[in-house]
Amino acid sequence: MGKGAFVTVENKGTALAKVYQGGDNCMNATGNWGNLIPAGKDSAREYIEAHASGIPCCCEASTIIYGIATLNPETGGFTQVGTFSLREDDNVWSSSGATGPITVNCTPGEQYTITVTYNN
C-alpha cells in the first residue's frame, strides 16, 4: 500500500459540476466521484491511494488524471472545463498540469489533504 490522500473539490463556479476520472497508473483507490457538486459548494471528501509496492509499481510514481465538467442548461449536457493530475512519488503527493480555471493545493500530513478549486 502507498500513501493516501483526501481530496475535496470546491465548486466556486456558477454551474452544477461533476468530477470524472481519466487514466491512472499504479493507484489502489481513485475515489467515488458519482455525486454532482452544486455551484458554491464542496464535494464530499474522497480518499485516493497510491500503490507503492509490487511489480511494476514499486519503482515508479503513481499518477491519476481527473476532469471537471459543468452543466450546460441549454443542452442538459456536461461540458469539460478543465483537468488536473495528481502524482504520488516516494510518499509525496503533488499536482501538475491543471488546465482551465482549476487550482490544486496539496498539504502534507499523515494522509495528504488535496483541495481542488474550480473558479469560474
User: How many helices in DSSP terms?
Assistant: 0
Number of DSSP strand runs: 9
Residue share in helices?
under 10%
Main sheet specs: 5 strands, mixed
The level 1 CATH classification is Mainly Beta
CATH-derived topology: Mutm (Fpg) Protein, Chain: A, domain 2
Please tell me what the overall shape is: elongated
Any idea what the CATH architecture is?
A: Sandwich
Radius of gyration: 14 Å
Quote the beta fraction: over 45%
Structural commentary:
The protein has 120 residues and is mainly beta. The chain has one domain (4-118): Mutm (Fpg) Protein, Chain: A, domain 2 (Sandwich), CATH 2.60.270. The chain is 0% helix and 55% strand. It is built from no helices and nine strands. The protein has strands spanning 4-11, 17-25, 27-30, 46-50, 62-71, 78-89, 92-96, 102-107, 112-118. The strands form two sheets. Strands 3-4-1-9-8 form a five-stranded mixed sheet, with no helix packed on it. A four-stranded antiparallel sheet has the order 2-5-6-7, with no helix packed on it.
Brief summary:
This protein has strands at residues 4-11, 17-25, 27-30, 46-50, 62-71, 78-89, 92-96, 102-107, 112-118. It has 120 residues and is mainly β.
Task: Give the tags.
mainly beta, 120 residues, 0% helix, Mutm (Fpg) Protein, Chain: A, domain 2, four-stranded antiparallel sheet, elongated, five-stranded mixed sheet, 55% strand
Task: Chart the SSEs and their pairings.
Elements: E1 4-11, E2 17-25, E3 27-30, E4 46-50, E5 62-71, E6 78-89, E7 92-96, E8 102-107, E9 112-118
Parallel strand pairs: 1-9
Antiparallel strand pairs: 1-4, 2-5, 3-4, 5-6, 6-7, 8-9
